[in-house]
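Recall the central idea of this unit: under ordinary conditions, the amino acid sequence of a chain determines the structure it adopts. In this exercise we apply that idea directly, starting from the sequence alone.
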Amino acid sequence: MNSFHRRAMVGAAMVLGSVLLAPPPAQAASAGVYGIVPKWGGWDCTGPRNKVAFVTYHNHTSGKNGGDAGDDIVWIPVTLNRNNNITMSIRCSFGTHMAQNFVIKPTRNAQSWWFRLNGTATSN
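Accordingly, the structure predicted from this sequence is:
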């Protein structure tokens, strides 16, 4: 085998190896759910006049993230009938931040999920 063939085989092996080791693509979001971070679930901003100012989510499964101000609910794009790795977080009006990771398996569009700061979540 001459040096040209040897270099071609090494190059092909490197390309094939990089394809095999590449991370899997994120799952495309196929629906959405309501993500709720209720005060009774531990998402409490302590202190007078200190309240939830902003709720954010990051769906690590689909790569989608976003947030909403004004209440404790956000719309989260999800992949149905699969585990979705979600990080929920809040920002309080006086600067406190809280976050927690969850794994949920939504079964239908517009399902509601209540996330508790202790790491548990329930749905309707």
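Helices lie at 3-21.
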